[in-house]
Amino acid sequence: MSAVRTEAAVGAAVVAVAIGFLVYAIQFTDFRSDSAGYRLTASFRSIEGVSVGTDVRLAGVKIGTVTDIDLNPQTFRADAEFTLNPDVELPDDSAVVISSEGLLGGNFVEILPGGSSFNLAEGDEIEDTQGSVSLISLLLKFVTGGDSSE
Fold it and tell me: Count of domains in the chain?
């Protein structure tokens, strides 16, 4: 009878620790449902360093997440879809830029708000985009003295 109680106590402790880890992981990763918020799209010449799950930031604050990336076979551009928090309303002339956290940091999607009095709505496309800049190509331009077309 004592062995059964011990096994039950150990089993309960394992379940409690697993639940604790799950709660910690949800809080640490800022877990949110993708269905909360509204969806926007943008088309980039280069989206290098960005993948599904990458942060979308405004003034350094996370306001959304990249939810899908596809290659458009007609334009040969990367079409990105992202979901933003519903309480963030962006002017319809806002711009989207792929930014870097530093030399060794990752990339993120940065929103630069415009000044329009009209806001973007669910499913709208942000037209003004700037793709990622390759650090290797910048270094090559610096080393070779600028123009590499010679």
Answer: 2
Question: What long-range pairs does 87-93 form, CB within 8 A, spacing at least 24?
Answer: 88/58, 88/63, 88/64, 89/119, 89/120, 90/40, 90/58, 90/114, 90/119, 90/120, 91/115, 91/116, 91/117, 91/118, 91/119, 91/120, 92/116, 92/118, 92/119, 92/120, 92/124, 93/128
Considering the domain boundaries, does residue 51 fall inside one? Answer: yes
Is 65 in the same domain as 18?
no
Q: Are the CB atoms for 53 and 78 separated by under 8 Å?
A: no
pTM over 0.90: no
Q: What is the tens place of the pLDDT at every residue in 40-94?
A: 999 999 888 888 988 899 998 999 999 999 999 999 999 999 999 988 889 989 9
Q: Which of 41, 88, 91, 48 is nearest to 67 (CA)?
A: 41
CA distance 113 to 141: 31
User: Rounded distance, CA 31 to CA 126, Å?
Assistant: 26
114 and 80 within one domain:
yes
